Amino acid sequence: MAEEVEVSDAMAVERTLGGDRDAYRVLVERHNRTVYKMAYRIMGNAHDAEEVVQESFLRAYQKLKQFAGNANFGTWVYRIAANYAIDRIRQRNAEETRRRVPIKSDGDSLEVDPLSQVQDGSPSPERLAGSAQLADRMKAALAELSPAERTAIVMRHWDGCGIEEIAVVLKSNPNATKNTVFRAVQKLRRAMAPFLEGKEARAMGTEG
Amino acid sequence: MKHITVEELIGYHGGDAQEREDIATHLKECADCRDEMARIEAVFKAMDAMPVPDPGEDYGERLWQRIAPRLGERKPRWWGSFFVPQRLVALGGVAALLILAFVAGRLTKHSVPPVDQVDATKVRERVLVVAVGDHLGRTEMVLMELENAPAQKGQKPINISETQRRAEDLVEENRLYRQTALKEGDQAMASTLDELERVLLDIANSPEELTPAAFETIRKRIEKQGLLFKVRVVKRGLDERKAHPEARPVENQTRGMERKKI
Lengths: 208, 262
Hints:
The complex is a heterodimer of chains A (208) and B (262).
Chain A: H1 2-6, H2 9-17, H3 21-43, H4 46-62, H5 73-100, H6 114-119, H7 130-143, H8 147-158, H9 163-170, H10 174-192
Chain B: H1 6-14, H2 20-29, H3 31-48, H4 59-67, H5 85-109, H6 114-147, E1 158-159, H7 161-183, H8 187-205, E2 209-210, H9 212-224, H10 227-243, H11 250-261
Antiparallel strand pairs in B: 1-2
């Protein structure tokens, strides 16, 4: 185990490519938490987040030959995961829409995004107190964002990714990506306005 | 005084506004913009209040246990593909079968006592059971991946390159086993392997990126023919044979399965 700690990402990649499958374990164990956090924030629940992490590490393994050795493996697998997450969330939204339209089924049979469930109904007085309630509101607000907006704000705010990096994941250009981040913040701001202090001057505008 | 736009303030918060010094100076002087900035930052603070549940200390281990069996799927070099363990096992199995078939045939022609014939047949069956069981296990994985692949919306192409590579490898083995099953007179198994071969060929010869419609066609074909079900039944029968060599022959069981499907 002591040896594993000292193995750099680049060495682990080399060994994996050389046929040492266990070397890949070092990479999985080293980077899974970062990828999981991002996936959870985008997907909104642990089950989907775990699926994203699992699939991303599998894809990274299968594409390892394409990985440029001088790049950072953590960044690379993070990007693969962000790409997969945005695809999955789009797919999930489409499935939900398809299922919701024809029949109003009982809640058990619907695969509803837990994020969007939080916003339904008025919260109980108990929940309206404290930071847990704020977190719930934020989860609900995030769930209302489009997949691109959600991915962009997660990458930007929590993981400090640059606009260019986010643009690659969104398959967009930097200017459009900036707008996506901007729209996401504005939507969150609008949704959170009743729960945060202060008036909403200029909230939606870009005027000087 | 010209205020800073909300967009610029968000960019400033993210560290990518071009006029950072100007904005910083303006914020010192302008209470309105400071208030605005405070409101934006309150949103970001609220985001930080949203916790991510800990997946558990053993998450890395659990994750590895789930993905490890699915690794090793990278396409080997063409010359290397002859030496991958699965193929060596398969080819070895088929070679052993051919040798045994030859020896058994020789023994039959020379009217060797029936006991020897029975022994040769048993060994031959045993080799077939083990080799085909392993082959079906890997084929089942490929079919499951295709059947369980998430549905795709719109026209976005679906990349099946990894599944395709494994299908390519399986086609060759499948052909050898099908021919052996035919020689052995196990029509039911030969028929299942024949159906599998066609689907595996379809997958192997498809473009790496399929349209959702083309992907759906392959998936429906697997579903319609009940291939996954057939593979599982045959495989279960082989597993039982492996565990209890004296149990009923493979061919009986596969034929039984065929009857049920009809």
